Amino acid sequence: MRKLFITTIALLAIILNACSGDSSSSSSSIEETEGVSVTAVVQEYFKDANGVTVSVDEEAGVITITSSTGLPDHKTPYYDVYEKQHELYEDFPTYYVTDGILENFYIDQIADRIFSYDEDGNYIITYAANDNDEIGAIKYVMEIPTNPTEAAIKEETDLAAIGMVLNGVPFFNNYNQSSVPLGGADVSTLDSAGGHPGALADYHYHVGANPGIYADENPEIEYGTLIDENQLVGFMRDGFPLYGQQDQDGEYPDDLDEYGGHFGVTEHFPDGIYHYHASTEDYLDAGWYVLKSGKYYGTPGTFTSN
Ligand SMILES: [Zn+2]
Ligand SMILES: [Zn+2]
């Protein structure tokens, strides 16, 4: 009798085990509880040509993305701002300000920013380097979940790298390193790609490239972050992808949540995934569009430099 009792308990334990094993690995609830895997897309689209490598620990559910230099693979004045000799050097953009535009922008300008007038009396602002005038190679390591999920408690994005563009360059939110929103003085140091260096010579983007607004004839897609498209820009630290302003169908989504994202089909995730979109709000009326501000939708992984 006693032996039978023990056997029954053992059997029950096996059944219970089998059940709990089932519920964590089976069928329909997988996407809701575990999230869609981003592994294949991360492996395929980060640019190893620019020194970015990807390694995956499926067991731990972690993808490690290593950017060997963090340097842009496109032209920027910061490659050689004074001598202008580097093969990837190009001038800062020039912004022609017509009447009534940029009110928010030039109110906040600092005195040494370069202004002039064209023959029609319009302001011309030539962007220029400020205190931070050079970029250096920095190795970055970003860890993201293989299957990102919504966080129970949403965290504010960091005042540092909040994600990585496919070329291995970090991107920041719309705050500067003094913890205040970017003003005209900050914005007028951006290059045509929407990037500039920080105090550690750490090149990073705040906004999407939008060379079309400038007088210079700039090639489009070469800047890595051109956002007036449905392109995959990069991945946030929480593992969710960041797209340009448009969805796959070329439409501007009208159902974005307070984190700037929504669940839907993309070119790279045909079964749908939660993804962010770059902002469509003209930042400071300066013609720039912030890549991502506010809180993370998921739980951010680590982003370290050395
Ligand atoms: Zn910055
Ligand atoms: Zn979308």
TrEMBL record:
Hydrolase as UniProt keyword: no
Keyword Metal-binding assigned: no
Signal peptide from the UniProt entry: 1-20
Keywords recorded for this protein, A-Z: Signal
Ranges where the YHYH domain occurs: 142-246
Highest taxon of the lineage: Bacteria
Pfam families given in the database record: YHYH (PF14240)
Name of this chain's protein: YHYH protein
Species of the source: Neotamlana laminarinivorans
